Amino acid sequence: MIRINLLPHRAEKRKQRRTQFYVLSAAMIVLGALIGLLVHSIYAGYIERQESRNAFLKAEIAKLDQQIAEIRRLKEQIDALLVRKKVIEDLQSTRAESVHLLNELARGIPEGVYLKSVKQTGSRITLVGYAQSNARVSHLMRNLEDSPFLERPTLVETKAATVDQRRVSEFNLGIGIERPKLEEPAAEATSSAAQANRRRK
Asked: Where are the domains of the chain?
């Protein structure tokens, strides 16, 4: 009977398998390292691009903040200019009031009535004066009520007084100034334009 010793063959196979395992393990390690390096480089590229985008956005936000601050400053300047314009317009619209007021008072004061003081607070006028009688005060109020520039004369107080050894009536009278309404012409113009548009249609 022939006996074959298989131990060297098995040892050789075992050695080959061990070598293959080591080579395969080394290849897997190298492949894993390459994959890790590739993934790291990809993510690093993503991060770098995102950081550049973030830097760009921060720069643009800083520019927008500067523009917003400039717009806010310009808005404050515009508001201040509008306030000044409104004051100038109010002054221009009321600068002739004193002349009208004195003209209307000169026309409306009847004989026997003397003014001691004229005081204006806003659109309200306070007249203090003397009259020979209460009937003269009533006549003055009727004249002022008929004026297109003055409105709502109101007698605040009347009392007896002595001036140059004469008995007179001292009165305190309040009247309003009727200012022209600037909005009505604009409203009429708007309604006229709307009617014209309807006719065209």
From this structure: 9-45, 97-177
Contact 139, 90 (CB under 8 A): no
Give, in words, the CATH class of 97-177.
alpha beta
Rounded-to-integer distance, Cα 169 and Cα 126, Å: 16
pLDDT at 138 over 90: no
User: Would you say residue 27 has pLDDT above 50?
Assistant: yes
pTM over 0.70: no
Asked if the model's pLDDT at residue 28 lies above 80, the reply is: yes
d(CA 75, CA 79): 6
CA-wise closest residue to 166 among 114, 127, 103? 114
pLDDT in tens, 40-49: 999 998 999 9
How far CA 199 is from CA of 182, 193, 194, 195, 196, in Å, comes to 27, 10, 9, 6, 5
Burial grade of 171 (CB within 10 A; 0-12, 13-18, 19 or more): buried
**Alpha-carbon span 115 to 136, nearest angstrom:** 12
